């Protein structure tokens, strides 16, 4: 496992933006 703290935050932010844009 690498330091997923930043990675997770990053991909969550992108997924969140994509979710918002999807709508």
From TrEMBL:
Compositionally skewed regions (Polar residues) per UniProt: 7-17
Region (Disordered): 1-23
Name of the protein: Uncharacterized protein
Source organism of the structure: Bracon brevicornis
Phylogenetic lineage: Eukaryota, Metazoa, Ecdysozoa, Arthropoda, Hexapoda
């Amino acid at each position: 496992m690498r330091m997923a703290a930043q990675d997770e935050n990053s991909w969550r932010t992108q997924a969140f933006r994509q979710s918002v844009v999807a709508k």
